[in-house]
Task: structure prediction
Amino acid sequence: MSKPIIMTIDDEPHVLNAIARDLKTHYQNDYRIVKASSGIEALEAVQEFKRRSVPVALFLADQRMPSMSGIEFLEEAIKLYPEAKRALLTAYADTAAAIASINAIGLDYYLMKPWDPPEENLYPVLDDLLSDWLANVPVPYDGIRVAGTLWSATSHNVKDFLARSQIPYQWLDIERDSEARTLVETTSEERPQLPMLFFPDGSTLTNPDLRTLADKVGMATLAQQPFYDLIIIGAGPTGLAGAVYGASEGLRTIVIEKGAAGGQASTSARIENYLGFPQGVSGADLTRRATTQAQRLGAEILTAQEVTGVKVEGSYRILTLSDGSELSCQALIIATGVKVRELNVPGIEPLIGASVYYGAATSEAKNYKDGKVYVIGSGNSAGQGAMFLSRFASEVTILIRGDSLQKSMSQYLIDQIDSTENISVMMNSEVVSMEGSDHLETITIKSNKSGDTETVMADAIFIFIGAVPHTDFVKDIVELDKSGFVITGQDLIHDGRRPKNWSLKRDPFLLETSVPGIFAAGDVRHGVVRRVASAVGQGSVAISMVHKYLETV
Result:
């Protein structure tokens, strides 16, 4: 952390310079000495220190100053730094005010002017105060801080993006933390939009979109060139595997991801059955390793940038991005994966992102410590989510519509769930309504066997109920099945006939769509096995098919 600050305030220049000189003589190795010539000037500096998360150890203020007295300054300063020690420099005539402030603002000490010699009248007092501060002050956090409210979808989106991008941050709940609330209020002159983000350099962002946030934290959102050999849409396991193999084999490769890298896999608390990780591996860690590997090999990865359209002009595939720019390539891989299917029940809409979450929402789990949470779903992702949540919540209940987990969940997960005391499973059950004002309060559960309903208290719900492909942007370009998944390879051949408008004299390659040079891999494909290992394998195979295609153009 940066050196803690000792701040001295006095309106008389010769006094201010003298006290600052004496402070530097004794404390400059361990503290940064900051001086101010007025209470107003000092308060502005204190606000900036707070935005930058710079620790303040001691305020030493002159009592008699115009516009703002020393006591008045301390009253405001300790709202931002309640743990800082506070002392007054007074003349004899001001001792009554100093004594009164002991109770009013918790004054730690008052010192008489002059303080010469400092070895007798200054340093012993301040040494004692600073020693006490060092023994009790918490170590300040010097990274990104996110201030907002727990029941806020916008705050959740920011936290989720940072967590999935593995960017450390500190969460400040302004409803539970008065110091955080004061920080927000003193930073913004008007009623702020939340969340508000504070960065180590003192800058702030208010309710940023993901692209603005990505730019701020140093992630690439703009391509380095207009044309690539290969563009991959989607930075899940499939897209990242494609990037690793494509870049390593000499293709100018760029990956475009509309959110955070990792896809659904990045939200998995632990993947137990991925080859080569006998202890399991978190989705976030696997994503971090793959991203680093792809970038080391030369692939570009754009984050928080969405592809809104694709068109074909001769041998070029041209992509339109959400900012209106265009990129072109010779070969394109669609690896956009799937998203969790939405649950349509009364009362859910205003609660999404505010105690009702799609997916694991690992950034939120710790907020439900000792809480009662529900998981809706019967697949592996639901099981992994339940196991992760069980580390925080006192009760985790899995709701499934069927009568068995064996039909859709791996046995190793079932065994773990059975052996976890605070996880229970309700069979033949579904949620039919949710109630709550700004956050979830109760849910109504219906038995699919008896038809009976039961309303129970609930702190949060995490939803894993099937998958919907991300293919809207190519629905008019490539052939999709009735569920919206991309059809590829031999599945495009019907009664011996190639796809409509297919102009080539060959059949589509493995993983190739109904448009030559456009491939699809991973969960977005029709009929795919949805496993991380399968996704990674398809990403690598897709590169082999890309090479075969490029040999023909």
Notes: The longest helix spans residues 532-550. The radius of gyration is 30 Å. The first strand starts at residue 5 and ends at 9. The chain has four domains: 5-136, 144-209, 227-339+468-550, 349-465.
